[in-house]
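# nightly structure sweep
# worker-07 picked up a monomer target from the shared queue
# config: single-sequence mode, recycle default, output format = structure tokens
# input follows
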Amino acid sequence: SSSRWKKVQPLIKSFALSFVHLLDGVTDGSTARFLLQRAELLLPLLTQVPKQGKSLIQSVLSIWSSESVNVPTRVRAYLLLHSASSTFPDAYLALALKGMIKSYRLEIGNRCNPRSLQRIAFAVNCISELSGVDLSKTYTIAFVSIRDIAIALRVALLSKGKEELGKVYNWEVINLIRLWGKVLSAYPKESGLRPLIYPYAQVTSGLMRLVPSPRNYGLRFHCARYLIDLMGSSGVYIPVASALLEALNCREVLKGKGGAAENARKQKKNGRGEKGNEKRIVKPLDWRCILRVSDNSLKSKHFREGVVNQCLLLLTKFLSTLSRSVALPEVAYPTLAGLRRFGKTVSTPAYSKQARQLVRIAEENCQLVLSLRARLDFGAKGVADYSCIGMSNETVCSRSHI
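# output follows
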């Protein structure tokens, strides 16, 4: 509104345009970090020239999401985005948050391999932290994203077509599930985001069971892990164990010996050993970067070992989140019954031993909860104050075996 601003505004626009052009063209990491640090001084002025401010935020977003940029420069770019969003939320928060989610979905999370895991984890942590600046705006963005996944999942459930399944069975969707699980776990008690826990759990559970084929167990393990993490942070019970027990009792695991071993024996008997195929079959599986496995891997020993290890690990984590609950003996009963049945039916002694060991430890924890519960002088009907149950929970936490 000042008369002097009309004289200064063209200069600021010109300087901002030149600054963004220089920032886009810089390839040296130290120079880019210096410019990003100095760009923070421009933020108050650029609130009055929204077009130039938007250009600066977009330029910083391209640096933050670029694969060729080193980690210190990427961190400096995020610090600028966080400073702009927290200091001037009305001008920059929605722009920065939506831009980061779009870049994460299309450039960072659209694929996954051992080299990109660190970059994906960094992006998820950045978006999760920035989401806490204004939970009401985060709720709107998260609701739209989860709704879009739910619509695509519904279409895939109705049609069962290969193209429709491909729209939900990909890294872009799975990494979005990972992102919103992280955000909901970071702010589990806040009323702004808590209503999203139920639809998120429903969509993730539906995605986990969409195609029950053993080839897609990688996707099932990812979804189960995100739900268990959310369950542990929010205190909301999410039934995950049945899907893991179903994977644990698949035919490939229970029969003990895959078709690859039988084929290898036949080839050896016929004098036609194929060393190249054997090497490809016995290659270990990195479940962090797997959504579906090939037919050759499906018949291998590494697949069976990986499925058993992943299921038992996730079931241990699932029971661990319940270890401080007074309802542990009742809630854990179906899971322990399924593990006992698996221990009796599986033909591999090592798998049976691992399952029995988990059952034994969980039963000890259930007995501990029952002994503490027997000391209470009230029933479930007339509980008015849950503080004494909390004291028991602390005791369980200090003596828990899981």
